[in-house]
Hints:
Elements: H1 2-16, E1 29-36, E2 44-50, E3 56-62, H2 74-78, H3 80-88, E4 91-96, H4 109-125, H5 127-130, E5 132-142, H6 144-154, E6 176-179, H7 190-193, H8 197-203, H9 205-215, H10 221-224, H11 237-240, E7 248-252, H12 262-266, H13 269-281, E8 286-290, H14 305-313
Parallel strand pairs: 3-4, 3-5, 5-6, 6-7, 7-8
Antiparallel strand pairs: 1-2, 2-4
Helix pairs in contact: 8-9
Amino acid sequence: MKYRAILVLLLISLSAAAQKPDFLSGIGCKMLSNERYGAAKRNVFDIIMPKSGQPTALVVYIHGGGFLWGDKQEAYERRKEDIAYFLQHNIAFATISYQFYKSDDSLGVGRCLNDVKRAIQYIRHNASKYNIDKQRIGSYGISAGAGSSLYLAFHDDFAIKGDSTLLGESTRLRCVGAISTQATYNLFRWFDFIPNLGMVAWLKKKQFYSSMANFYGYPTYNGFKPLIDSIPKQYDMLRMISPDDPPVYVINMQKKRFPKDFDIIEHHRGHAMVLSKELAKKNVRHYMYIYSKKTKLEQDVSYSVKEFMVDNLK
Length: 314
């Protein structure tokens, strides 16, 4: 029994400090894997910290997947160069997982966004453990991760004044990057800036409107319809934009324009364009890139999202 207890303690200590991915070989850093920020199974994150005698800035990565799939591993599969770049510039990196939405709980996408908010607050509340400067935290991601980052960037601070728990920590960000993003999670506003979307929705009416109701946590559109003027507005990032919001980097390289499927609809250039227009109205500093003859891929853009994040977190 004694030796079994020792073995358990040894396994716990080994799991706390995770094995660094191969692409980080040669970079002085420490990695903690599956840190918990909540009680749900998917309330976990990894954090990679550069060796530093002073608290460092932090980039938080939020994965995509339509709020229905994906996990924190996406960062290691798709953003290896970014991670190395941040660490080389003495900036820590965290990648989080979050719960997916359900079509029958009336929380819908709010479940996902609440997790993302809580993860930011948890890290801030434990800034000393992770050697983080809580005033210098930025967030970015792809698709749902991009939209989540924008939601936090534009929403009023969720911090509860005077609360000494993590709920009293700020949710405001220093900068935000949005790759293949959605401009708003009031899905009904998408008809305003995605050409021909109304026609497509009419042709696939039952499927389309059921999916929209599911997004907000309702199994049928008829059950959701009485709330159509209230719930979607809670997630309308375009409506939240104000002059004091942090700088934003937006890049949607979707070439196709006719909204024949959900992939095109969710990553349409119209999202980036309307977002840029609203940010300009409120004088929020931002960079916007969409597909063109000269910029067909993210790699073709002269100013990358990783450079943007570093420049704003120095």
